[in-house]
Each structure stands twice: as C-alpha cells, then as structure tokens.
Amino acid sequence: MLENMFIVVLAAVFSLIYGIAFRVLPGERWQVFASVPLRKNEDGSWTGVNLTYYGLLTSTGYAFAIAVLSVMLAAAGAGPLFIILLVLCLMVLFVPSARLMALIIERKRHTLTVGGAVFVLFLSAPWVIAGLDLFPYLSGHGAAGIVCLASLVTSYAFGEGIGRLACISFGCCYGQPLSSLPPVLQRVFSGFNFIYTGKTKKISYHDQMDGVKTVPVQAITAVLYTASGLAGLWLFINGQYYSSFFLTLTITQVWRFASEFLRSDFRGYGRISAYQKMSLFLLPYYALYVLLTGIRAYPVPELLTGFRFIWDPGFMILLFVMWFGCLFYTGVSSVTSSTLYIYVNEDKI
Questions:
Q1: CB count, 10 Å around CB of 109?
Q2: Rounded distance, CA 206 to CA 286, Å?
C-alpha cells in the first residue's frame, strides 16, 4: 500500500510541476534567477555574473536522482558506506564528463552535454559497482550488480526528466520549427509547442528562432523519462529488478536516439550523431552484461528502510553540499553577463 501511494504522490507532484514549468520557462524572465556584482565600473554600475535557472534546475535534478538512488539501494539492503562511495564515484564520473564530452564531440568549451556524460556513466557503472563489491563489508546484503544498475537507471530517468526543464529555461536542446515539419506533424504539435522569448536564450543567439513555434521536445522527454522512472521504480520495489532495469534503459535510450530527429540544435557532426550511436550502444552492452553475469533472484526491497536512510542528517548535509556544488558548476553563466545599478530608494528613507 505504501509503495503504491508513493508512486501516485510522485506522479501527482511531477504533473503539477511540469504543467506550470512548460508554460512559463520558455519566457525571457526564466533564464537568470540572480546576478551577483563582481567589480565596479567607472559610471557607477557593476559588472555582474549571472546565476541561471539552468544550474538551479540541473542541480535539483542531480540531487533528486541521488536521493532516489539512495532510497532504492538502501531499501534493497545496500550498506550506508557502499551507497555513499557509489554516489561519490558516479558523480566524479558524471559531472566533469558533461563538459569534456561536449568539448570532444561538439568542440565547444562553454557548453555541457548530459547525453555524453550519461554514456560515460553507464559505460563505467558495472565496473565501479564490481570494484566496490570486492569489499564485502561495504555492501550490506543487497548491493548486487543488477540491483545497483536498476537503481541507477531509474534515478537517472527522474534526474534527466527534471533536467529537461533546465533546457527549456536556457533555450537549449530545442526542437525544430513547426514550419519545417511534414503537415501531419504540424497538426500534431499545433496545440502544444514552445515559443521562446529573449535574445539571451540559446535558441535565439544560435539560430535566431525566438518567437518561432518549435517542437516541445524537452517537454516530451521530461514526461517520457519521468513516466519511465515511475514505472521502473514500481517494478523495483516489487522486486522485479531486471524488468525495472531494461524497461527504463530501453525507453530512455531509444527515445534519446529518436528525439534527435526532432531537434534543431547542433548535436555534432554526421547524419546520425555520436550521441545517438552512444544511446543505442548501451542496449546490447547491457544485454551482454546480463548474459555474462547470469540472472539471479534477489529479496524484495523494503521501502521504509530506504526512507530512513535518506532522513539521516549526515546524508542530508552531503546531499546539500553536492546540490550546491552542482549549482555552482552548472549555474554560473559564461555565455551571458550583466550590468547592475545599485541605488537607494529615496522615498523609503
């Protein structure tokens, strides 16, 4: 009963958040949430650095994914030290890879790629888990490979679902203009599309498409990934680890491949992008992994145990530190600047 209520509550919360976010985030107002003055200019103004909603939403997606991952692992019996070390190892792999892979594939220094970072993360995850499993005193009794992987791919689906809101806010990862689509797709998206406003949105300064109706590919991704995360979580808490893993992995990676045909932003060179090839590679990669490791039965997880773990003050502090670090890393804008005027309101004195 608790498990079903948890899924229903999560679905309701995400539905409410997404319903609001899809309406407001394409607007100009929702790109920068704060500007911090750095140095004073001769005219009395300040040159500032912008903190973006992209960073705020991305770091929130990371933190939520870590929380879900930790709940699932603890519920399945993984030990606290194992969970913390696994999270730290995965974050060390994931966060720098987002910038490094963008540099390698897109040849851009001031951008991030979740797709490239996810590929590095999923490619490395079985070996990281196997390395930690060499120390049995870390693992508790439930840190088996497929249990960890099912937890990882489900939490990733939630994290990237939230992360697509960041892309809407920044105006990146945008869809094709409706005018370029076949008539049947124009009719499909005529009632649901995005119109971005603001010259500092990426869609504007890269493709001059502000004010143009575009395919809401980020919104579709957010809904589809979150739905797959909910399905994967439900299967997981009912002990169906293999189904949870492959269902969520297949939905997210097949859609990553397909969605790029609806996108208009630069995704690297070639008709089929490197990101699309990466996403499809992961499916046979993990099929081979399961073939080599075999299928085994594992105990059904206890959800309350997972909740007790993340409620620990030490874990909450660690989660906040990681959230803040991700906010600083992804939220400080290097492609926009600001000029600030700070003055006294005479009528308030």
A1: 9
A2: 37
